[in-house]
Design brief:
The chain is about 25% helix and about 20% strand. The chain has eleven helices and 21 strands. α2 packs parallel to α9. The longest helix has 19 residues. It is globular and about 65 Å long. Its main location: mitochondrion. Pfam families: Pyr_redox_2. One of its GO terms (biological process) is sulfide oxidation, using sulfide:quinone oxidoreductase.
């Protein structure tokens, strides 16, 4: 059961990119319709902004600490998504409907769900403003707003999704398009991208590449396919141990990797993708594609841009060890919206949640926080339809593996943890606030040794 810590949940659950939000609810017709809820009070002891992974997890923990009636969650979306499974949805191995549940079903019982959007934060006055100028005050504020996808920043891409050749596993509206593009592939270039911005689940852009390559081999189309990974980064993965393992896979499968190339434009009528060379200003290269999987640029939610709680880039400015805000002692951040120097995954949120719970408890009791977050995160690097590498690491990009064996090896058990165990543990463990990362299990597995 402890294996939930290994999963790279890839997101904060609900937030969608702004230009796609209006149609989100139409995508999953089986969802229960929930009635809009507004605040029944204008003050809560703990106010949580965001109903994604971090927000739901912390609201569950705060409910147990101070009582449900003292906690509220602000979240506009009617549906909560388990996004890690979208890697497998895009590869045809899972159904999209399995990734979604009504938000009402994941809000802890008794906790107030305020179904609205945050319009403004005023931490100097201990309040936030929602839609319709509704003001909510708080004693403690937890910011868990996730991040925002920016497909619109790639010229031609939003309309390009009408093409059967383009998909993206990062949105509920486009993940099934990935599978259709893969099924329709005949011959030519299959291109996978990584943008020049922070991203959630940094391993996901290449997971779908490995799965697509495996699918093309299975269907006999691989000889006519050229697999291309164009990444804005200068390395295949930020932790050397796992990078070495991935480079071996890339070499054995004849995958072409181009470093420091960033997608700037899509021309769907010509099936062309335009990339800028980040090392040579002004230089671009045009690629023909038969299939294109796009990882969009990402950034902080609009409400955090130029906010008192954010740094110059718009990320919530928190202490990397305690998750307490650097300026406002009653404000805290968790997950993708923060400037924590670690990968933006819900495996990281699991580790952060346990620390943040203890941080807030200490502050409520008038004590200084003592527990420290070490930057733990993980990424299950799916490399085939029945294999995965379990990458776990810390702030220093050093492996922080839980099992007493080499997790950089492709394993069937690692794949089944990702595909079968993790969804159950996500809904019934992490979101209910019972999982704070695998550190205790790691200590047990390694007999107390580092």
């Amino acid at each position: 059961m402890a294996a939930v810590g290994f999963v790279s949940f890839c997101a904060s659950g609900c937030p969608m990119m702004s230009w796609l939000r209006p149609g989100t609810a139409k995508m999953v017709s089986s969802q229960l319709h929930t009635t809009a809820r507004s605040a029944t009070k204008d003050y809560y002891e703990v106010l949580v902004l965001g109903g994604g992974t971090g927000g739901i997890t912390m609201s569950a923990r705060m409910k147990r600490r101070i009582g449900a009636g003292n906690v509220a969650v602000v979240e506009p979306s009617e549906n909560h998504f388990y996004q890690p499974i979208w890697t497998l949805v895009g590869a045809g191995a899972k159904q999209l409907a399995t990734s979604s549940r009504p938000t009402a079903s994941v809000i802890p019982s008794g906790v107030q769900w305020i179904q609205s959007r945050v319009e403004k934060l005023e931490p100097d006055k201990n309040c936030v403003y929602l839609e319709n100028n509704q003001k909510i005050s708080y004693k403690y504020l937890i910011i868990a707003l996730g991040l925002q996808l920016h497909y619109e920043k790639i010229k031609g891409l939003p309309e390009g999704f009408n093409s059967p050749k383009i998909g993206s596993n990062y949105s509920v509206l486009t993940v099934e398009k990935t599978w259709k593009a893969l099924q329709g592939f005949q011959e030519g270039n299959a291109i996978f991208t990584f943008p020049n911005t922070p991203v959630k689940c940094a391993g996901a852009p290449q997971k779908i590449m490995y799965l697509s390559e495996a699918y093309l081999r299975k269907t006999g189309k691989r000889p006519k396919a050229k697999i291309i990974f164009n990444t804005s980064l200068g390395v295949i993965f930020g932790v050397q141990k796992y990078a070495d393992a991935l480079l071996e896979i890339i070499k054995s499968r004849d995958i072409n990797v181009n470093y420091r190339y960033n997608l700037t434009e899509v021309r769907p009528d010509k099936q062309e993708a335009v990339f800028e060379n980040l090392d040579k200003i002004g230089e671009t290269k045009v690629y023909q594609y038969e299939m294109l999987h796009v990882t969009p640029p990402m950034g902080p939610p609009d409400v955090l841009l130029n906010s008192p709680v954010s740094d110059a880039s718009g990320w919530v400015d928190v202490n990397k060890e305690t998750l307490q805000h650097k300026k406002y002692p009653n404000v805290f951040g968790i997950g993708d919206c923060t400037n924590l120097p670690t990968s933006k995954t819900a495996a990281a949120i699991a580790g952060q949640s346990g620390i943040l719970d203890k941080t807030i408890s200490s502050i409520m009791n008038g004590k200084a926080p003592v527990k420290k977050y070490d930057g733990y995160t993980s990424c299950p690097l799916v490399t085939n339809y029945n294999r995965a590498i379990l990458a776990e690491f810390d702030y220093n990009a050093q492996p922080l593996e839980t099992f007493p064996f080499d997790q950089s090896k492709e394993r069937l058990t690692s794949f089944h943890m990702k595909a079968d165990m993790m969804p159950f543990l996500y809904w019934h463990g992490l979101l209910k606030g019972y999982w704070g990362g695998p550190a205790p299990i790691r200590k047990l597995m390694h007999l107390g040794l580092k």
